[in-house]
Structures are given as structure tokens and as C-alpha cells.
Write a structure and sequence with these properties.
Layout (H helix, E strand, L loop, with lengths): L7 E2 L2 E2 L6 E4 L21 E5 L3 H7 L8 E8 L5 E2 L8 E2 L9 E2 L23 H9 L7 E4 H9 L10 E7 L2 E5 L2 H4 L5 H17 E2 L6 E10 L2 E8 L2 E2 L5 E7 L4 H14 L4 E8 L11 E4 L4 E2 H4 E2 L1 H7 L8 E2 H21 L3 E12 L2 E13 L3 H30 L1
Parallel strand pairs: 9-11, 9-14, 16-17, 20-21
Antiparallel strand pairs: 1-2, 3-4, 4-23, 5-6, 5-13, 7-12, 8-18, 10-11, 10-22, 13-14, 15-16, 17-18, 17-19, 22-23
Helix pairs in contact: 1-9, 3-6, 3-9
Length: about 400
């Protein structure tokens, strides 16, 4: 694309310096003629075309996120919220105290759904809402969601190949809410995905001390992406002996380079400070064919030391290829996330209805985002009632304050 076309999308004027968004339905990201649709009814379609990656680097600054923990909670097997402090969080076991190698295939049964949330009956996407209701307030924020949603969006711009994904979004009373479709949460995965999920759970069993009643542990974090204030619920694998959040992963040492952007953005958004890897080995015991072994746990990596310039990373790399990420990639992911949040604020109607945002791919390449509205309700009734009560309480408090001010003038 020539420089002269950088302010246009498929021949249509777009918002922004290069690329941007326009009207258009599913599949119209490559030459559609649909008119732009700003605001309006929930059934309108909008299209955002992904443009030059360098633009997002310029617009992004990952250091401004600055996540601050404003609360924490765990969830029981019955998926109820309890113990709103870190005392109930799992703790990490030091690498020196782990018996290696670990055969992660032990106990695996094909076709069984694995994961600590495999029996999750709690409505997905409502954890943050339930936490807000429990504490009886909604802070001054623009976006309410969970970590995995923001990771899904941000990492889209960092990978070469993409599978289409769909998220549900809503703008209501000035705040943006985001979640995954419930049907997608329970969608059956292929056998390789199921087996990898089992390996992750099995590895955690060997390196994490988990309280008996704990199923999932979360931080509530407030941060800033661009000009938007974010509140997210971020699941934490474990905490270290000094109270720092730890992300546990398994990976082949020679593949960490292509996976580190996904691991980094997931950890960074959650306020994780330590990456704990198990290096997978292709059957070190020579007892079977397969990849379900962890034969080495390297030193722990602090999230702040993972980043570097391309030149710095080249000098630091060794045979095990430690997980290093270019700062430009970090900025690109956060810049892309910021632009998409701004686009959603502009494109969504101000009403409690579901709009589906789908990644538009062509030849496995991410081309754009399709936003299609509906008349389906997004937020649950109990949360709307909670917001209404907050408004009434605020109105009553303001009335009392005004009355006190008036009385003081009469004295």
C-alpha cells in the first residue's frame, strides 16, 4: 500500500492516520461498499481493518498500564467466592524441591475435558461483576472484563497466523463490558488441545501447593490502556514465598521464542511478576513415544527482565533460549488493544445488548474485526438492579449534602 493510501480503508475514508474502521458486514473487510454506521441501532454492523503494525508500536506504551491490585478472591469447587485475601492462594514449590522428570501423561483419558474450571457452573464473564456487588461499589473505570479477553485481543497483532475468534461486548452507562460467548466456553476441543490442557494441569499438581477447598484464585486489577481505565479479574496460578504472583507454563525450549509474546501479555495483564517454566522433553526415559515429559525447570524469570531490544536479546540468548521479548512487540500489543477499545467505545450503542466482535481472517491472516449487534440482553438482571441501587444511593447522598450546605448558609 502506498503512502498516499494510508489514511483510507479499501478505498473508503477511515478514521485515523493509517487504516481504521468503517461500516460493513461479515466478509466485507476486503472491498465491501457498506456505508459507515456510527451509533444507531444495535443491529448495525461495523468493520475495523487491521493496518500497519508499526502504527500500533507508535501508539502503544506498555509501561503506562501500571496494574494496581484492588482486591483478590478465590473460588470453591461449588464456584462460590470466598476468602478475599491472599491467604487462600496456592503457593509455588521451588524448582529444587520438584522431583524430575515428570510424566504428564499419567492418568490421562482421551475425550475427557480437563482443567481446573472443567466443571465451572459459574456464569463466565460474571466473576468481576460478582466481586463488585460483594463490595458494593463500582470504581471510576471505563472497561470491565477478565484478563483472557484482553489477552485474546492484544495477542492478535503479535502472531503471524490466526484462528477466528468471537467475543461479546456491550457499552452500558458509559462502561464497556466484554466476555466470551458461553457456547464457545464449552466448545469441544480436538484431542491435541485436550491433551495439552491435561499436561498443564498435571504439571501444576507437581509444582503448586493448593489449598484443599480452592479451585481458582483471582486478583482484581485496575490499570490503564491508552486513555481507558481498566478493571479486570485475572486468574493467578500461585504466589511465591514473598507474595509475588507466578504464572506456570510448560513448553519445549526450542519453541519458547514463538510462544513468549502470548505468555508475556497474559502474565503482564494479570500483574504476574514471575514466569515458572517446565521444559518439555521428547521422552527422556525412552519408554514411549510422545512429548508428555518435563525434564528440567530452569531458573525463574522475572517478568520485568524478559523484555529487551533485538540487539540485547541476541546477546542474551543461549542453548536453552530463555524467554525474551522485544519491547516493540510489547508496545505493539498494548497499542493495538488500546485502539480496539477506543473503536468499540465509538462503535457500540449505549444499551444493554450483545454485540458480537469476530476476528476476520483470510488465508489464516488477521484482516479485521467485524462487529454485529443484536437485541439479546448482555448484563444480568441482578447486576442492573445493583447499578440502579448505587445510583439511588448516590442521589440520596447528594441530596443530603445539598441540604447540609443550604442549612449552613442559613446559620
Amino acid at each position: 500500500m502506498s503512502n498516499g493510501n494510508r489514511g483510507r480503508v479499501d478505498g473508503h475514508h477511515s478514521r485515523g492516520r493509517r487504516g481504521g474502521y468503517r461500516g460493513g458486514g461479515r466478509g466485507h473487510g476486503r472491498g465491501g461498499n457498506h456505508a459507515s454506521s456510527r451509533g444507531g441501532s444495535a443491529t448495525n454492523s461495523r468493520y475495523y481493518k487491521i493496518h500497519y503494525h508499526e502504527d500500533y508500536i507508535e501508539k502503544g506504551d506498555f509501561t503506562t498500564y501500571n496494574p494496581v491490585e484492588i482486591g483478590s478472591f478465590s473460588m470453591s469447587e461449588e464456584m462460590g467466592l470466598f476468602d478475599f485475601d491472599k491467604a487462600s492462594f496456592p503457593t509455588i514449590i521451588g524448582p529444587a524441591d520438584v522431583m524430575l522428570p515428570i510424566d504428564m501423561d499419567v492418568g490421562y483419558k482421551p475425550g475427557v475435558k480437563y482443567g481446573r474450571n472443567a466443571e465451572d457452573t459459574f456464569v463466565h464473564g460474571e466473576k468481576a461483576l460478582s466481586w463488585l456487588k460483594h463490595f458494593g461499589t463500582v470504581p471510576d473505570i471505563d472497561v470491565i472484563t477478565r484478563k483472557g479477553i484482553l489477552k485474546q485481543i492484544a495477542h492478535t497483532i503479535a502472531q503471524s497466523y490466526n484462528d477466528p475468534w468471537t467475543l461479546e461486548v456491550c457499552k452500558f452507562r458509559g462502561k464497556l463490558y466484554m466476555k466470551r460467548p458461553e457456547a464457545e466456553e464449552d466448545e469441544a476441543k480436538d484431542e491435541d488441545h485436550i491433551r495439552n490442557s491435561y499436561w498443564g494441569v498435571k504439571f501444576e499438581e507437581h509444582v503448586i501447593n493448593r489449598p484443599e477447598d480452592e479451585s481458582q484464585s483471582y486478583k482484581m486489577l485496575k490499570g490503564k490502556v491508552g486513555n481507558k481505565k481498566i478493571l479486570i479479574s485475572g486468574e493467578i496460578d500461585a504466589i511465591s514465598s514473598d507474595g509475588r504472583a507466578v504464572e506456570v507454563k510448560t513448553c519445549f525450549p526450542d519453541k519458547i521464542g514463538r510462544n513468549i509474546s502470548r505468555v508475556w501479555i497474559q502474565a503482564y495483564l494479570s500483574g504476574v511478576e514471575i514466569l515458572y517454566f517446565g521444559w518439555k522433553d521428547r521422552d527422556p526415559l525412552n519408554t514411549k513415544k510422545g512429548n508428555g515429559f518435563v525434564s528440567k525447570i530452569p531458573e525463574l524469570f522475572e517478568i520485568k527482565t524478559v523484555l529487551g531490544s533485538k540487539e540485547e536479546i541476541a546477546t542474551r540468548s543461549n542453548k536453552l533460549r530463555p524467554p525474551f521479548l522485544e519491547r516493540n512487540t510489547a508496545n505493539k500489543m498494548m497499542g493495538f488493544l488500546s485502539e480496539i477499545l477506543n473503536w468499540l467505545f465509538d462503535a457500540l450503542p449505549e444499551e444493554n445488548t450483545v454485540s458480537k466482535m469476530t476476528l476476520d481472517c483470510y488465508d489464516n491472516r488477521a484482516k479485521g474485526l467485524i462487529l454485529e449487534g443484536s437485541s439479546v440482553k448482555f448484563l444480568p438482571d441482578w447486576y442492573i438492579q445493583f447499578l440502579d441501587k448505587l445510583q439511588l444511593d448516590d442521589a440520596s447522598k447528594r441530596a443530603v449534602d445539598i441540604e447540609k450546605q443550604f442549612e449552613s448558609l442559613l446559620l
